[in-house]
Amino acid sequence: MIFADIESKINTKNGNEVLLLKREPVNGEYNKTILVIGVFHGDEPDGEYLLNRYLSQKSETKNRLLFIPCLNPDGKTAKTRTNANGVDLNRNFPAKNWEKNDRDEYFGGEQPASEVETQFLVYIVERYKPDLIITLHEPYSVVNYDGPAKTEAEEISRITGYKVEESIGYPTPGSFGSYCGIERKIPTITLELPENSDKEILWDTCKGIFTYIAERY
Predict the structure, then answer these.
(1) Alpha-carbon distance 20 to 128, whole Å?
(2) pLDDT 10s digits, 163-206
(3) Which residues are catalytic?
(4) Distances from the Cα of 30 to the Cαs of 25, 163, 212, in angstroms?
(5) Cα gap 37→20, rounded to integer Å
(6) pTM of the predicted model as reported, rounded to 2 decimal places
(7) Which structural domain, as residue segments, surrounds residue 43?
């Protein structure tokens, strides 16, 4: 059971649902909005596990929390990085640095925001205006950030023990971090989880992040 409201949803090319879930204070009054996203890449599934585990428990929050447990269900089913159209969703955002590249696992699409999953996220960012965004990836065990997110990155590093890396080490044209963090100045964290983690160890390592965004941020 998931203790959250379905705020919005879309269907992918293959007919799978992408859900936007919401948890907010009982009185409806909140201080900040935090958006957390899992499974940008279909072969990086552990973010969905963490989000669903958190949402399976009742807890209070002072903030409005928005969750997309799985942004790329088509890719998850196929165990591919890309979506059903062969597009890397984290290269498909309408950032100034978007560029058309080779049709490989990093293919950014025929044009910016060509994919329904990308369009859904652009809509969510514009409508809900999050104060902090966290995306869950694998496999580097680091806290990467874009925009004015150094303080948040350091706190998540303290919680998890993963080191802070301002640069992931290679160019990411059309990335979500470029679109939201660099261009829109929204603190944007790319939390790289370790690959093939023991689920209990992963939860014990990361559960404090949810306390942070619900109670302390």
Answers:
(1) 11
(2) 999 877 677 899 999 999 999 999 999 999 999 999 999 999 99
(3) 192
(4) 6, 30, 15
(5) 9
(6) 0.97
(7) 5-216
**Cα 196 off chain centre by:** 18
State the CATH number of the domain containing residue 50. Answer: 3.40.630.10
**Distance (Å, rounded) from C-alpha 55 to C-alpha 14?**
26
- The pair of three-digit structure tokens given for residue 86, joined into one six-digit string: 């062969």
Asked if 213 contacts 132 with a C-beta cutoff of 8 angstroms, the reply is yes
Instruction: Tell me the two tokens of residue 71.
Output: 């942004």
- Determine the Cα–Cα distance for residues 72 and 68; give it in Å rounded to an integer: 10
Question: Which helix (H) or strand (E) covers residue 192, if one does?
Answer: strand 188-192
- Which phi and psi angles does 213 have, rounded to 5°? -75, -25
Q: Number of folded domains in the chain?
A: 1
What is the pairing mode between strands 17-23 and 64-68? antiparallel
Residue 6, classed as helix, strand or coil, is strand
